[in-house]
Q: What sequence folds into this?
């Protein structure tokens, strides 16, 4: 077929990115532009992906066999391409003619393989011209800002041409000279290749090591050849495979309409054209050539797709069918009404407006746990802080309260008791009744939390109508009221804007208004101030504090900032590696921390140390939060703890810490309290120094 | 804001005009590179050199190229592409009678591809699992099979085995709307197979990307029904690359009509290109190249403006 002279779905993706709506996502790396950052791996040909895909392996084998068979054709083909067997005209497969014969009694097998070499070879011309020219143009455009404009305009024009018609006009001028025609086809296709390559080449040009090379006086050409071209390797191979397939299809299409190699030379398109004349009396004739052509195209596509397959980094925010089935099964097995749940202790009556999380575990389905045995309570009208470094399971805990865990992650045990129900085992439709109306969410990046395609007004008004069953006019009045309540002065104007037209702080106010739309009793705030400027942070915090006071709702505040905790939280749960390691009243925790991790967090926080006792060197916590698969059997903080001893290897229970209703998970908690030990700042350990040097040399090595 | 939009539209119109002009020059030069002078082509073999020369002079063939070009461009701008060297009929009249055939074919195929492709792509993205793999495999096969081969199989199935549709031929709409639709059915379906697969892949990728956006979680947190998240919010977010994909597809399908028209004996532009190129009929080749370019560029322009309109960031800035 000739349908698309522009290559497969890639240019459209490139278009989408140019329009700027789709933030460059990890998923688009292979086809579109890689994000800035260490992308040295992008350039390497991803051979492991090839061997991981059975289709691609089959494709490589098929192409290799085809090339081998066609090159050696003269020695093994049973017949010459022009040999006619008048005894077997239009025959099906027989012992003499394995794939049958055509209307002149010529052997199909022989003709198919005799035609293969020419088809593959001339398609290669399109690949070399198209991918070569496209890559060179992209590198030139990426190297200089002035060249990019004109080249892009020209390629845009080329992509909007009816390529097939132009190729036919070329054939009119030069005749059916297949190599020339395929080369000109390559020129037309190069525009699409350019679009794919440009983003990547530009990203590579903006790498730090390229800047360094420029400072060193490496010429533009040198940079393009040494630093940019190697980075494009994988994309070049991917595009070559895809264009090879396009070339074969177009060539066959041309031969089909009579612009193939001169008769009697066999060509796949020509043979299918011949077969189409006999679809009434010998339909078999269609099969062998069509199958061989289709298999060859499939083989090239499979190779290209396997090499170009981008890792699917982010998970969908909608539950998959499997997620929904699991939830339905779980809720059927364990009715969500807390009274019916046997493990709901009788001394904990379900109080309205009180959240009680009991032994909650969250994990990747059928795999790694992310959060284990987390328990905490939030009384009505109070604020709980969930504190810890990144990767401690705070956000997963928070999202599980609304049943909004990402696809493939779910609550695997424990209870989330809310208004007499266990939300951990609630069905999706039950949760939908809770979300927004009883429990609401605000998230870290307000800009990304709002739908960029709809106005603030649409999003707010439709949420109010849905959650409060209001009419349109009434909901609009309510929306204006909500925006004023969150401190927006020109509410009427904000309603008409799109999210990208307002500032981050304003967007977070809108997101809070959206969360308040259903008059929730509990607000889950996932680092609501982290992405904002410091002054705006303070405003948002005081807004939240005022809302708690006015509405009497409770808040679960996820944060890594102890300043935020001190500012707004009544109680705190410190999380480390998926566990609560210490919990209690904010004042107790901050003034008298019992767990070494809490101690360390406080010592490492510049704001927690007041001016007079500000240490000369701020403390650090060596190492990183371990990955769930590396969690030790005993205390999970053991590897980073300054006080760790042999007793820490055994599992540690959460026990009363002695101050009010505080709990702590440390075997040495009492010992530390008695001795009044402090987390001390350490010198930069000697073994870290070579690391830094090594990083420099890694950069050096990465220079391709 | 309106002014900025107007400037943008004006710029795009100029680009489109420039594209058509470039193609006009290209078409003119290519045709002049064709073997055989107009006289030789129109008189056929066996004509005397004197007769050939006479025709060539009458057609202005011996004038300098720029003169010929601007004379041709002047008439072309007024819709006159001269007369065919083969049968002496007006090229413009011929193309005017052929355009509706190809337009119906390409528009029908684009529409069918878009409906099928978006439906399949959304289903694959939303259902995931086995459904996704099946749709993926079918689409992979559909883009690998040549349209002409699929077309012949359809003829075999629907016209030879069971005569649901006519195998070949075209019935004008004015003659019988029903027969017109029936005669278009097989060629449209043939072209739409590959197109639908292409759009389905694009839609699937865009929908998956849309569903990974954080605002989807906000929508769920405010109890938005799933159908509304999928078909109002996610599809809207995914619509930009999908529309861009449809625009590309139309260009491809317009070219693909050359094959469909040959296969199904449809008197459209594709058939005109094929015959005029084989017979070296210079004015017809020039005419059909220019007309095809104008149509493709115009449709592309409209779809591009539609894309910009769909994107609030671009609409407002």
A:
């Amino acid at each position: 077929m000739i349908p698309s002279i522009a290559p497969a779905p890639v240019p459209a993706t490139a278009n989408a990115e140019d329009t700027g709506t789709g933030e460059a996502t990890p998923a688009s790396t292979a086809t579109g532009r890689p994000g800035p950052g260490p992308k040295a791996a992008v350039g390497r040909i991803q051979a492991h992906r090839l061997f991981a895909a059975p289709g691609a392996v089959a494709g490589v084998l098929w192409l290799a066999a085809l090339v081998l068979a066609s090159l050696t054709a003269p020695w093994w083909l049973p017949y010459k391409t022009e040999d006619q067997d008048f005894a077997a005209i239009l025959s099906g497969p027989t012992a003499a003619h394995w794939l049958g014969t055509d209307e002149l009694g010529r052997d199909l097998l022989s003709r198919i393989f005799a035609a293969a070499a020419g088809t593959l070879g001339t398609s290669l011309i399109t690949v070399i011209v198209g991918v070569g020219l496209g890559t060179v143009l992209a590198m030139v455009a990426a190297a200089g800002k002035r060249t990019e404009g004109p080249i892009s305009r020209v390629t845009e024009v080329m992509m909007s041409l009816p390529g097939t018609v132009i190729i036919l006009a070329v054939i009119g001028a030069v005749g059916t000279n297949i190599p020339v025609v395929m080369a000109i086809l390559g020129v037309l296709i190069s525009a699409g290749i350019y679009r794919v390559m440009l983003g990547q080449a530009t990203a590579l040009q903006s790498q730090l090591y390229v800047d360094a090379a420029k400072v060193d006086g490496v010429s533009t050409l040198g940079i393009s050849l040494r630093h940019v071209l190697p980075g494009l390797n994988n994309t070049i191979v991917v595009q070559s495979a895809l264009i090879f397939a396009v070339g074969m299809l177009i060539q066959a299409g041309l031969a089909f309409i009579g612009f193939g190699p001169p008769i009697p030379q066999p060509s796949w398109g020509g043979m299918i054209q011949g077969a189409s004349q006999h679809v009434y009396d010998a339909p078999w004739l269609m099969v062998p050539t069509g199958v061989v052509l289709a298999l060859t195209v499939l083989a090239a596509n499979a190779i290209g797709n396997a090499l170009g397959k981008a890792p699917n980094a982010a998970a969908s925010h909608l539950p998959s069918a499997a997620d929904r089935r699991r939830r339905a099964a779980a809720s059927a097995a364990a009715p969500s009404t807390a009274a019916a749940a046997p493990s709901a202790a009788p001394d904990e009556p379900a109080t309205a407006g009180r959240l009680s999380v009991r032994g909650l575990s969250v994990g990747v389905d059928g795999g790694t746990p992310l959060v284990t045995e987390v328990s905490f309570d939030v009384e009505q009208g109070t604020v709980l802080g969930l504190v810890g470094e990144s990767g401690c399971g705070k956000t997963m805990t928070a999202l599980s309260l609304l049943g909004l865990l990402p696809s493939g992650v779910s609550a695997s045990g424990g209870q989330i008791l809310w208004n007499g129900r266990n939300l951990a085992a609630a069905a999706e439709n039950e949760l939908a009744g809770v979300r927004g109306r009883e429990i609401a969410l605000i998230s870290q990046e307000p800009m990304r939390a709002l739908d960029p395609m709809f106005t603030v007004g649409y999003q707010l008004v439709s949420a109010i109508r849905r959650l409060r069953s209001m009419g349109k006019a009434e909901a609009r009045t309510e929306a204006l009221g909500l925006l004023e309540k969150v401190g927006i002065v020109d509410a009427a104007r904000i309603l008409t804007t799109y999210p990208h037209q307002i500032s981050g702080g304003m967007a977070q106010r809108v997101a809070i208004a959206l969360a308040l739309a259903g008059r929730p009793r509990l607000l889950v705030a996932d680092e609501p101030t982290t992405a904002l400027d410091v002054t705006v942070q303070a405003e948002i915090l005081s807004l939240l504090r005022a809302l708690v006071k006015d509405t009497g709702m409770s808040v679960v505040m996820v944060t890594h900032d102890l300043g935020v905790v001190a500012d707004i939280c009544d109680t705190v749960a410190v999380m480390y590696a998926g566990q609560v390691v210490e919990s209690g009243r904010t004042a107790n925790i901050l003034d008298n921390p019992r767990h070494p991790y809490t101690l360390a967090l406080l010592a490492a926080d510049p704001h927690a140390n007041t001016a007079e006792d500000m240490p000369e060197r701020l403390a650090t916590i060596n190492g990183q939060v371990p990955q769930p698969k590396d969690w030790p059997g005993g205390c999970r903080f053991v590897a980073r703890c300054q006080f760790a001893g042999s007793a820490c290897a055994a599992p540690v229970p959460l026990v009363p810490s002695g101050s009010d209703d505080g709990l702590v998970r440390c075997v040495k908690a009492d010992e530390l309290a008695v001795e009044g030990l402090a987390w001390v700042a350490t010198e930069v350990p000697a073994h870290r120094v070579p690391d830094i040097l090594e990083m420099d040399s890694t950069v050096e090595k990465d220079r391709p | 804001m309106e002014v900025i939009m107007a400037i943008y539209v004006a710029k795009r119109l100029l680009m489109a005009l420039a594209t058509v002009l470039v193609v006009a020059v290209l078409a003119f030069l290519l045709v002049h590179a064709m073997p055989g002078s107009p006289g030789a082509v129109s008189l056929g073999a066996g004509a005397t050199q004197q007769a050939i020369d006479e025709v060539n002079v009458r057609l202005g063939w011996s004038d300098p190229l720029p003169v010929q070009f601007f004379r041709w461009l002047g008439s072309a701008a007024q819709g006159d592409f001269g007369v065919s060297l083969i049968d002496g009929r007006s090229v413009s009249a011929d193309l005017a009678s052929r355009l509706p055939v190809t337009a119906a074919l390409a528009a029908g195929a684009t529409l069918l591809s878009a409906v099928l492709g978006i439906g399949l792509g959304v289903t694959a993205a939303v259902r995931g699992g086995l459904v996704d793999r099946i749709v993926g495999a079918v689409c992979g096969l559909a883009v690998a099979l040549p349209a002409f081969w699929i077309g012949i199989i359809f003829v075999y199935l629907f016209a030879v085995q069971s005569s649901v549709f006519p195998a070949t031929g075209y019935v004008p709409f004015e003659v019988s709307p029903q027969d017109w639709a029936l005669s278009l059915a097989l060629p449209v379906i043939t072209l739409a197979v590959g197109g639908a697969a292409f759009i389905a892949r694009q839609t699937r990728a865009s929908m998956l990307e849309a569903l990974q956006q954080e605002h989807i979680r906000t929508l769920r947190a405010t109890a938005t029904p799933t159908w509304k998240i999928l078909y109002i919010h996610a599809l809207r977010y995914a619509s930009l690359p999908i529309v861009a994909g449809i625009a590309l597809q139309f260009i491809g399908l317009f070219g693909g009509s050359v094959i469909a028209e040959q296969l199904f004996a449809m008197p459209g532009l594709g058939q005109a290109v094929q015959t005029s190129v084989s017979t070296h009929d210079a004015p017809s080749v020039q005419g059909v190249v220019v007309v095809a370019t104008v149509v493709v560029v115009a449709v592309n322009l409209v779809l591009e403006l539609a894309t910009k309109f769909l994107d609030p960031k671009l609409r407002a800035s």
Remarks:
- The first helix of chain A runs from residue 10 to 19.
- Residues 444-519 of chain A form one domain.
- Confidence is low (pLDDT under 50) at residues 1-41, 338-348, 688-704 of chain A.
- Chain A touches chain B through 104 residues (CB under 8 Å).
